[in-house]
Amino acid sequence: MPESLPVITDPPVDHSDVVTWVQSLGGPVWIELSGVDNDRCRVITTLLHGNEPSGILALHRWLAERPQPQTRLAVLVANVAAALAPPHFTQRIAPGGRDLNRCFRPPYEDASGMLAEAITHDIMARAPECVIDLHNTSGNGPSFAVATHCDPCIERLAGRFCDKLIVTDFRLGSLMELPFAFPLLSRCPMFTLECGGALQPAAVEVAGAVYRKLAEWPSVTDLSPNPALEVLAHPLRVELKPGVRIAYAHAPQHGAQVTLWSRIDAYNRGVTSPEVCLGWLGEGGLANLQARDARGEERIRQLLCERDGKLYPRRPLRLFMATTNAEIARSDCLFYAVPY
Q1: Which pLDDT belongs to residue 8?
Q2: 138 pLDDT exceeds 90?
Q3: Which positions, given as ranges, span the membrane (predicted)?
């Protein structure tokens, strides 16, 4: 059985800057606040990626208010090593590690896997009423939630923080997939909340609202639904094929097989029409890209097309998580897309 992570219970107010405070934590840690009813627990996880700091910034600010939650509130500060790798809050993965939010499934053989296993054990031991995993989007854009299945409780919870819920059938080893693997969590509403871009002040406000509301609500099961919540199902991940070179610019770049528009994250809002040029394709054309669904079937030509060396949507699309970070594009994906 994995060893539990350290716990800091009812921490005193820390008036240092957030980096100094994170350094003082010493590594992955649970910050646990006593509640009016300590027999119940709610969980928030943050900083699974070191370059997604809105959750930790909001936590540091909120703890200064000396909150007393309705229930016990356990907050995980996860990937401290990645967050503190210089420059601070710019590294997604700890040096020498793997993407922590791809490690929540066996084998747990390396340091990242063992940390994910310990987090899983700790969450199950708390038998939480809900788990909300805070992230930042890899490009600028509005907040949205991601879940692995349709669930009315998830919709009511997510609808308090955003107007869009993505229901994905991809299984990547993320934390929000734990209810599928562990029956003890099967009835626990668990989802990811993408608070917005890491540099957007509004993203810290979204994360702050999660702490405040989960602390204030007497119950998470009797919330009223958000009638404006839009539920989008079965997104496709648009990825580079192995070895393909990418650039971001205002014109096609020499040596790049795919050049995306430098502000492609502007299309993380609304519907992108087939007339919008997303970028330029070099040698190999559309064959440089792939978009396999959860069953492994290639769907790229249903989403995108090439005209005169330029990349366009084949049909109106809802894009999200479109990034302008070439490293994330290579290691993860260019963007997600849902036909509109």
Answers
A1: 98
A2: no
A3: none
